[in-house]
Amino acid sequence: MQSATLTLAFFCAALAAPAQFLHKGTFEDRPSVALSNDKMELTILTNGGALVNLVLKDDPQQMSPFWNPIRMARELGQPNNFGTSLGHFVCVDGFGPVSEEEKAAGLPGHGEAHTRPWEMRHSAREGRVAAVSFAAELPVVQETFTRTLRMVDGENVIYVQSELESALGFDRPVCWAEHATIGSPFLQPGVTAVDMSARRAQTRPYEGGNGGLTHRLPSGKDFTWPFAPGARGGKIDLRTAPREGGTGDHTTCLMDPSRKLVWVTAVNPEKRLILGYLFHRDEYPWTQNWENYPASMKWARGMEFSTQPYDVPRRQAVQDNSLFGAPTYRWLPAKSKIGSSFLIFFAHTPEGFRKVDDVRLENGQIVVEDRKDKLQITLAASLPL
Asked: How far is residue 73's CA from residue 63's CA, in Å, rounded to a whole number?
């Protein structure tokens, strides 16, 4: 009788226990872990820390908004020449190419963090909150990068907190970008639109070729987001992806200096899905819009929020100093830490939701507005940013 009672108690406890929130596995043959709640699941590479797959549990298509160049190459019958720079990866300390001296010293492009093993330091579930923490040693720049990701039951939000710690005894300029990149099929020709809290913008200065892609935009021209000058005249609305491939361009946007929290979103109104980021403007003053639209229709579009307007060598970022009156790098004091925090939201949209005019975090909620069509998305967001 006692044994039966214990068995029943164990069975009831198992039913009451929360679902497993962290799973080890692989993604495209790369070691990974998946963090999940009752709403969605996020897959993270344990080498490089890229956020590579994000799906809603009630989505029958299980469509992730993130760029997966490995899958795209496979679908085209092409070789896989990609490492760990997939989806949303972090570029720290460094964003862009390196000098010849840095290259000789072993510093890779886009910094070390996306190439290094990420040690899982902690994982736990406390009440409704599930969390996992990682750390990566960056030996060339002598820094340690740590990142904690949290999910709350019932919420379509991922909370990301990071720290960069210097082992050096002098202040130094650092370059840091969140290389968030969407891809096909979420990135759909003529359909998927990117919005952000920005006005002042510039087309990237360029010379010569563009990897076989045609520039739609001229070199080094200022404009007001989202209407950029066309290379052949007229204006091009950069919000929505073009209907045809064969082009590639790069622009930068200064995030609204009147706001403490700024945002960038991508909406696919046909799939009725929205991906969004909310972050601190003083940590990431810039958002880059990298458009890679080859004729193969295997597309990628960066929504890269960062400390600098373009991915350039550190020397250039420091020499440029500022653009539109905003800084082009960030200081890391001697033997000290600096941090950042942002959140990611991914959710269904109401029918007819096509454009984001504002994103606000207020009273424990994310409010996303499409003012033209008088539509609104409200998402629970109980943790502070």
From this structure: 18
